[in-house]
């Protein structure tokens, strides 16, 4: 199927959480998280408008397993806004783990969206925190620049990328996810489940080559 979500005027490239802690050697490393950098950088070079997101947690964030006695990373608990996966401490504000990967081309970014800053609320999506009520302001920022199409890539495919893509569709944007510019955690089959959910919502799964990058 041909892709109708390009990288030119009216589109924004959303590069999700390409940070040291999500790359090999990091606190919450996504397998192959650094192998996708050439594809992401090619997309950045071809895009009309680039937005980066950055996990930016305070110390002792409520999503960290370390703050819940007797709990381990990747367990699920129930919090005020529903189920919450517990993670290893990661992307703590001001640490090297929270920094963008050194090979990521950041200079062309028109905006950096920092998320997960509230101590008791996690934030996967670039558009909403996990309470599904609090917005990041990205929706309005994109619309003020005439954006109607969003192209997503980065880390991780089955969490922050998928949440961002699904929210963008819910907000009325045309959306594509560049599969070869993403890597997945794949926790209990989450990669396949989220791919199916995105396709059911009308998200186009595509490649960097199909977008001319």
TrEMBL record:
InterPro entries, sorted: Isochorismatase-like_dom, Isochorismatase-like_sf, Isochorismatase_Nicotinamidase
Gene name in the database record: pncA
Known pathway: Cofactor biosynthesis; nicotinate biosynthesis; nicotinate from nicotinamide: step 1/1
Keywords: Hydrolase, Metal-binding, Pyridine nucleotide biosynthesis
EC number: 3.5.1.19
Presence of the UniProt keyword Coiled coil in the record: no
Gene Ontology biological process terms, A to Z: pyridine nucleotide biosynthetic process
Domain Isochorismatase-like residues, every copy: 11-208
Protein name: Nicotinamidase
Keyword Metal-binding recorded: yes
GO molecular function annotation: metal ion binding; nicotinamidase activity
Family that this chain belongs to: Belongs to the isochorismatase family.
